[in-house]
């Protein structure tokens, strides 16, 4: 029995530009911060980069046909900002046309972490002007594609980008600013608000955002651990959703930390709380936090290490099962976070799960030509059931997109971590649907449609 969803529920698959496109210099495209970061050496596992990635730029027609073959309704992808800056919107015209010809709805994300290096050189997200530049970029795209694209996502996971890229050094642009990174978060939120305005002005019918969320639990009931978990969740969850859905930051500390004078901040927050048609939630795993214990070694708990001196420390989440990436498998965390969002935000728009999935180190197709990824099927099944549970609990969820359509370049982890429903052989770039792809197809076909 497959989990069942209300009529009209939309299924999809997600990808992002830098992780799949390759064609790093095609059409005069300049570098993004990920081109720079990966070229530095010692930044990505096995020294890998996305210069070729899975060459989706040239193989998009095959990829879109494969995605459509699973019976999904929506395909979420992202634009490469440096590519668009170089004037190559033609590629996205071809891509969108092919998505539509295959009967799918394109759901593009404006910004999925690949900032043009020239903007980084001018201060990147620490510079308020980057928000205005994103709005200009949004207008280029909506003017060219707005006749064919009805659903738009502004930003992807501003929290992860701010934490890993600006607070720590594990992702591009590796700034290592600690709590000093908060302005980078604020400027992304401002970019979101400005983009919503631009998209709507040019007739976009449906606008949303993709935010990563996760339940944060204190390791014990002690006041110190509870305070540490609250601060961590404020910084990584609510800093990026309260301004959008409540019109303010979760605490005075964070309001002060974003470094914008009060009157200006109030005007910014007005823009940031623009009405949305849907709210995208990316979910992977919960986090457990404690107040730092003197002398204890916390390295290796998260994919990245929180530097010493921070007032919170992640500890391993209790879970019997982990993905091959080491992420805890806790499907109920998805139900929990959806219910929490509904309780926290009376005006929560309909939710779409814009990412959810798992990395397993799948073996290449065997003599039967198949990739047997039972653990991914179990993961997807359990998480889709968790979504169905949230719907039963009264949360309006309108869709689910799995991460990812295809195996791809998993940021600092390179090509080892395979999240795709479609296997990619990285030596010859051939594509093979995995068993999970057929499972997803059958699940979608099993839904009673209205
Ligand atoms: C998310 C990112 C996405 C992918 C998955 C595994 O944080 O948005 O690009 O890397 O994790």
TrEMBL record:
SUPFAM superfamilies per UniProt: (Trans)glycosidases
- Enzyme Commission number, as recorded: 3.2.1.21
Active site as annotated? 355 (nucleophile)
Q: Give one GO term, molecular function aspect.
A: beta-glucosidase activity
Q: Which Pfam families match?
A: Glyco_hydro_1
Give the superkingdom in one word: Bacteria
> Which reaction is the catalytic activity of this chain?
Hydrolysis of terminal, non-reducing beta-D-glucosyl residues with release of beta-D-glucose
Keyword field: Carbohydrate metabolism, Cellulose degradation, Glycosidase, Hydrolase, Polysaccharide degradation
Enzyme class, UniProt record, top EC level:
hydrolase
Record's InterPro entries? GH, GH_1_N_CS, Glyco_hydro_1, Glyco_hydro_1_AS, Glyco_hydro_1_beta-glucosidase
What family is it from?
A: Belongs to the glycosyl hydrolase 1 family.
Q: What is this protein called?
A: Beta-glucosidase
Which species?
Answer: Actinoplanes subglobosus
């Amino acid at each position: 029995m497959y989990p069942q969803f209300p009529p009209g529920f939309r299924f999809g698959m997600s990808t992002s530009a830098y992780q799949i496109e390759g064609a790093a210099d095609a059409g005069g495209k300049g570098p993004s911060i990920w081109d720079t970061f990966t070229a530095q050496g010692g930044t990505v596992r096995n020294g890998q980069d996305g210069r070729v990635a899975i060459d989706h730029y040239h193989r998009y027609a095959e990829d879109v046909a494969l995605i459509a073959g699973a019976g999904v309704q929506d395909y979420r992808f992202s634009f490469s900002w440096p590519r668009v800056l170089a004037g190559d919107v033609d590629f996205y015209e071809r891509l969108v046309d092919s998505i539509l010809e295959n009967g799918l709805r394109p759901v593009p994300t404006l910004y999925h972490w690949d900032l043009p290096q020239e903007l980084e050189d001018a201060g990147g997200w620490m510079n308020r002007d980057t928000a205005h530049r994103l709005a200009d970029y949004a207008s280029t795209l909506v003017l060219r594609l707005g006749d064919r694209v009805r659903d738009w996502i502004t930003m992807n996971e501003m929290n992860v980008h701010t934490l890993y890229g600006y607070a720590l050094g594990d992702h591009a642009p590796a700034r290592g600013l600690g709590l000093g990174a908060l302005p980078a978060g604020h400027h992304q939120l401002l970019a979101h608000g400005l983009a919503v305005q631009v998209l709507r002005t040019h007739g976009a019918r449906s606008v949303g955002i993709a935010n990563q969320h996760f339940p944060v639990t204190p390791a014990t009931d002690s006041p110190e651990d509870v305070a540490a978990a609250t601060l961590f969740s404020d910084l990584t969850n609510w800093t990026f959703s309260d301004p959008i859905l409540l019109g303010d930051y979760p605490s005075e500390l964070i309001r002060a930390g974003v470094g914008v004078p009060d009157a200006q901040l109030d005007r910014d927050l007005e823009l940031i709380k623009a009405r949305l048609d849907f709210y995208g939630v990316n979910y992977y795993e919960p986090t457990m936090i404690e107040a730092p214990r003197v002398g204890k070694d916390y390295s290796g708990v998260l994919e990245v290490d929180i530097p010493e001196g921070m007032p919170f420390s992640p500890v391993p989440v209790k879970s019997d099962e982990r993905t091959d990436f080491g992420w805890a498998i806790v499907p109920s965390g998805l139900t929990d976070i959806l219910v929490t969002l509904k309780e926290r935000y009376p005006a929560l728009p309909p939710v779409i799960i814009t990412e959810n999935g798992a990395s397993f180190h799948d073996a290449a197709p065997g003599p039967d030509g198949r990739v047997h990824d039972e653990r991914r099927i179990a993961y997807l099944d359990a998480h889709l059931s968790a979504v169905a549970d949230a719907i039963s609990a009264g949360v309006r969820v309108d869709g689910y997109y799995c991460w990812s359509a295809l195996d791809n370049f998993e940021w600092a982890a390179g090509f080892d971590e395979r999240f795709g429903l479609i296997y990619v052989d990285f030596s010859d770039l051939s594509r093979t649907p995995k068993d999970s792809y057929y499972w997803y197809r059958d699940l979608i076909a099993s839904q009673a449609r209205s």
